[in-house]
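ok so for the tutorial part 2 we go from a plain amino acid sequence to predicted structure tokens. step 1 is just haveing the sequence, like this:
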Amino acid sequence: MQSKAATPDQYIAELPEERKEAMQRLRDLALEKMPKGYKETMGYGMLCYVVPKETYPDGYHVDPSLPLGLMSIASQKNFIAVYHMGMYGDPKLLEWFVSEYPKHCKNKLDMGKSCIRFKNIKNIPFDLLGELFSKVTVDQFIEMYESHLKNK
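step 2 — the prediction. this is what the tokens look like for a chain of 152 residues:
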């Protein structure tokens, strides 16, 4: 489900009522907890948190016109998703999240390479996600990103 919303506020407003509260709470957590320097925007029909082009002019290597994105939050058809490239690029961060998850949630972790899926919005571990959102500074993400580019 890709939204055509032009702004984060419009995105939240267009969500089904049963998803609005959880998505707004995730958005508020991102805005509160993410280290300084990230910018909230829309991308790929999702809420995105990016390193602005003013900070990292090279942008995303696949499409340099786009800013470098650390995280996205989306209301998909059957779940709410948090996409966090920091966990994809940093095995220690992934290991931390996987080990912490059972302390915050009784249900099994449903996760891909960078995507955490929540089918039941009542089971979203907001405190844990807030902590995750706070863990990667802009400088750390740029360094991680560039090190992975050099390894290819």
